[in-house]
Amino acid sequence: MAQHTSSSQLVIGLAGLGTVGSGLVNLLHMNKELIAQRTGRNIILKTVLVHNINKPRSVQLPASVKLTQDIHELTDDPEIDAIVEVIGGLTTAKDLIAQALDKGKDVVTANKALLAEAGLPLFELAHKRQRILRYEASVAGAIPIVQTLKESLASNKIKALLGILNGTSNYILSEMTAKNLDFATALKAAQDLGFAEADPSLDIDGFDAAHKLCLLIRLAFGVQYPFNAIQVQGIRDLQALDIRLASELGYHIKLIGQVQEINEPTPSLTAGVFPTLVPLDCLLARVEGSFNAIQLHANAAGTLFFHGRGAGDLPTASSVLADLMAVARKETPNNTGYFQDLLPKATILPQGAATSCYYVRLMVQDCPGILRDIAGCMAEEGISMRQVIQRVDAMPVKAPSHVPLVLMTHETSEQAMQKALEHIQALKLPHEPIVTLRVFNS
Ligand code: HSE
Fold first, then answer.
1. Which of 172, 203, 290 to mutate to test the pocket of ligand 1 (most atoms within 8 A of CB)?
2. What is the DSSP string of 404-426?
3. 341/338 Cα distance (integer angstroms)
4. How do residues 137-185 score in pLDDT, each as one tens digit?
5. Is 212 a catalytic residue?
6. Alpha helices (H) along 76-199
7. Confidence (pTM)
């Protein structure tokens, strides 16, 4: 067990001195008096784990702080009460958290990938050791959604939850929309400004949003929804033409993570991350740049909307420090938000049964009978059209005989849409791969 050095102090070890770790060091200094006023204790940083102790740092560490490359200097130090893990990744972070909990230390982490993909044993260990494992910063940076679901909305049954959970993707989509850029140009701009990583795949391929969605499902519904059961589609293949056509139809395309409870034939959940057309009169359509937002429907509170910074040094450190202050107040562990921390498995709607409205865009020849044949394929699967447009003026120069044909459907199942697309492919009419996107139906 950690030996609490003094009840007026909470001694911490910090793993990671990147953007979030440096933000925490600065915030601990900036809000030192407030921390003491709110918790009655001082939070003292003792040791910082880094990859390379010789690397120059822009953050000013107190002289008493020791830098180390050895995780045992955090986990085995009896004076350290709590560990903050902001190194990310699945290996060292997992060992560090497991060893810290095992040694009786409380843990604060921002590691959504670890908690989504391998969180269960850590929650079990925290439960067994009766330690606090808090993770507000792991979902949507500064937005206090984890505690909101665990506490402020604890009296509600959550019916549905959706959100913009990845700031990098939202920045790229906002730039594509506002400046009519193609994906590669907008990604490069995001990288030049430091929003997107050199390897941006976790963000743009939807996995970062899916990790956060996985944690939100656990908090909102009290079940384990396996990360690999979440359907994921990123924004890498989005074309400027579809962003433009969507805007003309009254929508913005956003990368939306969504979970819904379906009651028929049996109560089950369905979750996915998809580029989605969001009507311009929805608040989510107006979330711009690197911001995040979450909208949820609760059975007593009604619809709620949260908006804020999903990344960055101080915004993310704000959530990390709030968790540390809860540890300093010696709050009772409430790690999953449920009395039984060992949550049951989710009942998941069978693949293909989830329903949505769709935007389907094909490049086809502009001649008689084409629309009839394509609409026939949709009708064969019982899919009803809501709106059909053909944009002759949007004809690409290289293929002047082909035009974009857009079909907006009423709600249909994934399975029916998949079959209709197979029928259309068999007609050999489309000139390019068919673009199929979900349309948000509020
Ligand atoms: N890379 C994430 C984003 C922030 O772009 O939103 C940290 O999860």
1. 203
2. EEEEEE-SEEHHHHHHHHHHHHH
3. 6
4. 999 999 999 999 999 999 999 999 999 999 999 999 999 999 999 999 9
5. yes
6. 92-102, 112-129, 145-147, 167-179, 183-192
7. 0.94
